[in-house]
Specification:
By secondary structure, this protein is mainly β. Helices cover about 10% and strands about 45% of the residues. The chain has a single domain (about 20-140), classed as Beta Barrel (Lipocalin). It is built from 1 helix and 10 strands.
Length: about 140
Amino acid sequence: MNLRFLVAIVVSLVSSQAHAAVGDKWRAGFSIFEHIADADNVAVLSWSREAKGGTGLVGYLFFPGLVDGKFGGLAGDGYYVLMDGGHCDKALEAPDGSASKNYGKAVIVFHDPPPPTGWTLIMGYCDGPPMGENSLRASPIE
């Protein structure tokens, strides 16, 4: 095999972006995340939780600029909106029209690209910065 060809393959793998296509899914404990849409330059992921009797919607994650299957490197900034609870001063509206006072900023950090890759989600409360004690790690569902 040609050495230049091998070097080109290694360079492309090392420098590749983390890819996530609509329909990709990840698991973190009883939580399931699915990349459900790329809309207006924003990647939208649903967040559901498994329980007896089925799976219920917990909320949504939004990552501006992380669309077209490319999450643009090893990390991205966004936010989350959860469907229940919350103590934020204002309410944000979810894609289904419901309002929530349970939201915050989020950072997604990808592990070991190229895909499929797991990631860690670090979340903040309301308008505060994301903090390490409010995080979870998700692995791809194959």
